[in-house]
Structures are given as C-alpha cells and as structure tokens.
Amino acid sequence: MKKSRIFLLIAILFMLIVFYVVYDMSRKTKFPKGRPGAETEQNKSVKDSVEQKDPMEVEIRR
C-alpha cells in the first residue's frame, strides 16, 4: 500500500511538471501565420518563382 502511494505521488508530480512545461512553451510560442509580415525572404522567393512560370511548364526536379 505504501509503494502505491509513493508511485501515485511521483506520477502526479511528473504530470504537473509536464503540464507546466507545455503551458510555458505554448505561452512563449506564436503561430507564424498569425503575425503580419510573417513571410520570410525564402518563402517570398519560392512564391514568386512559381507564380512567374506557366503552371504547365514547371518541370519536376528529382
């Protein structure tokens, strides 16, 4: 009986630590598409290069 109480206490403590870490990470992280001006230069260049070409002429590179 004493071992099950110790196990339960450790399990609850572990879950509290995990929940705290997840909450802390979610507070500090923002969804990149939600911010204005979130497009990076790399995304812009890829987007522009695809838009300038005719969709039928885009070649697939392997």
UniProtKB/TrEMBL annotation:
Residues 30-62 are annotated as: Disordered. The chain crosses the membrane at residues 6-23. Keywords: Membrane, Transmembrane, Transmembrane helix. It comes from the Bacteria. The keyword Membrane applies. Residues 36-62 have a biased composition (Basic and acidic residues). This is Uncharacterized protein.
